[in-house]
Amino acid sequence: MKLRRPLVAGNWKMNGLKASVAEFTRIVEGCDGPLAAEVDLMVCPPATLLSAFVAAAAGSDVAIGGQDCHAKPCGAHTGDIAAEMLADAGARAVIVGHSERRCDHGETDAQVRAKAEAARRAGLVAIVCVGETRAEREAGQALDIVRGQLAGSVPDGATGAGLIVAYEPVWAIGTGLTPTNEDIAEVHAALRAALNARFGSEGEAIRLLYGGSVKAENAGEILAVPDVDGALCGGASLKAEAFLAIARSYL
Ligand SMILES: O=C(CO)COP(=O)(O)O
What we know:
- Pathway: Carbohydrate biosynthesis; gluconeogenesis; Carbohydrate degradation; glycolysis; D-glyceraldehyde 3-phosphate from glycerone phosphate: step 1/1; Carbohydrate metabolism; erythritol degradation.
- One of its GO terms (cellular component) is cytosol.
- It comes from Ancylobacter dichloromethanicus.
- Keywords: Cytoplasm, Gluconeogenesis, Glycolysis, Isomerase.
- The chain is of the alpha/beta class.
- The chain has a single domain, classed as TIM Barrel.
- The chain is built from twelve helices and eight strands.
- The chain has an eight-stranded parallel barrel with strand order 1-2-3-4-5-6-7-8, surrounded by seven helices.
- The longest helix is centred in the C-terminal third of the chain and has 19 residues, at 181-199.
- The radius of gyration is 17 Å and the shape is globular.
- Bound molecules: 1,3-dihydroxyacetonephosphate.
- 1,3-dihydroxyacetonephosphate binds at residues 11, 98, 168, 173-174, 211-214, 232-236.
- Residues 11, 98, 168, 173-174, 211-214, 232-236 line the site of 1,3-dihydroxyacetonephosphate.
């Protein structure tokens, strides 16, 4: 048995209306026995669709996640959502520290770490995102940047059951550009080494996803890169066929 079970997760970002539940239902229907035997599937819809997706996924092997959470369990934080609320709605995981949150909302590593701790408090898996910008990669800083983000954003005591790390180079998100397989392998090896050094055997159990312009056409080779335990897909997760095709790379 593989040490880490593959996971193909979809981040719907700020996309989807009630009518989109039908498309998500096609993902649920496509997650048949043979696929579910090989790979975990998860979809992270916008908060407005969370309950509808949980209902549509009931009885299936497709998990639902949130896209962000507040660090506190409740209180005067207009517009924010607590990890406990996501769990209460049926989510099993939450993405924290996505580069769009780090960029659009100025989230720091310390804030991302507090959100990951909130996820743990609420019984959710935290999917912590890290990734360098184009300028940082061109300056040869990619490894230092992701190592720094990992160290600052991942709480102490992380476990394979409670944490997933997603490497998402900012310049690869939504651009159709991807790093070379060698570059992905280099970053994932660095992340794996850092997790193992900090968490020992638990670090070895933490899954590392790659995200950034993953599609059916490139999924096979990206998912075969050493230390890539799955994908975090944006655009391709909005269409059931495209998303399922990525997951079927594991068959
Ligand atoms: O940001 C991403 C997932 O979180 C990746 O988005 P794309 O797959 O659209 O590049």
